[in-house]
Amino acid sequence: MTTMRRSVGLTDSPKLESEIASIRSTIESYLAFHVDPAIVSERDLLLQQITTVQKQIAHAQDIRVIDAQVIGCRKSIHEGRSFAEFHVEIVTKDHGTLSVWHTSDKFSALAQILGPRARSCLPDVPKMPVRRLTDAALGDRMNILNEFLQAITKSNDLEWGIRVNDDISVYKRRCSPKPIHITKENKQKQLDVLMALTAERDVHAEYKTLKAQLATYKNGDANKIVSQEAAQLKTQLRDLQATLISTQKIYLISARIVEFRKGLRSGDEYKLEIDTNNRGTLSVWHRYSTFYNLAGLMHTKYGQVAKSLPTLPKQTLFSQMSNDVMTERAKKLNAFLAAAVANDALQWGLRIDENTCAYKYRKRVASRTNSSVDDHYSSVSTSTAASSDDEKSPTSSHRTLFPTKGS
């Protein structure tokens, strides 16, 4: 992380906040009087839908902490009470650098939640006296908080989390994050959403933007301008919905062979159709050896549990692949796939392409739940999501079986 930029400052003037609220109210009144209500309603609904999808994308992320540091502080007044907030900069493994403002009491609460054994090995985080809001006192408090953050970040034994906002939390976990198959483009779109939701609010820029927006409405055709905004929002919503789908695991509902063909150099190939929870029906061509190897993995992994699966004919090198032989194999494969999907104790997956896998998870009788720490901190439990590639996650207790690469 870069060198800490310690700073103590005042929050923006309440007067500016009041002016922003006044401009917003003026814009709403102007649009209500000059623009077709249906157009305004459509635009407002799209804005709500965009916010909802952005939150869903953010909530789906498994964000891991690498480092955390307090880089600044600000004094605030709320309902006549003075208090201080500390600016925490969080470096994550795969999601860039996020930031959040928290009071000192939140750090004290986290220390309490970690338990007495952990606290005995960590720097103390006493509650901050309300009256001690001098620059020197706040600078000392930042040092205390940073010692605490460095200790819990570098510990390999502690699991903890910090809530960045209502929809984004970052975690320090002992287990490694499970690999996710996603394109670079969609990954960047996810990061863009996180940055937008966690960006530091600039009230001065917000004030200027709102003033310019009001002037635009007054100087132009407000109906046309709001219609254009709605059109742009529709495009944005479609893009976000596509990005959301890319964050969701694809659950395999059913699978069947619908076609077969002779491969040029790789024997017989079979077209697989997979019904999924969120992508409709996907199709992919796989060699017979892929399914045969998957069956072998199931028997190796699950033993007696997989005994009920129909047996697939052995692979035969240099055999003549007639239509009758491939028809019989297709029937056997469909019986095998139907049984593998129906067996609640089996967990496996099939790769559709480089970035897409469909999963069939085993059903669990009971699952552990997370315990939470007030509004801002939560403990961490083991995810039920399986590894996307068996050989990539040797420590996972519930790995998903995949046929070996190149099979």
Automatic annotation (TrEMBL):
Pfam name, any one: PX
GO molecular function, one term: phosphatidylinositol binding
Transmembrane segments: none
Low complexity bias locations: 378-387
Positions of the PX domain: 248-369
Taxonomy, superkingdom: Eukaryota
Region annotated Disordered, chain positions: 372-407
Name of the protein in its database record: Myosin
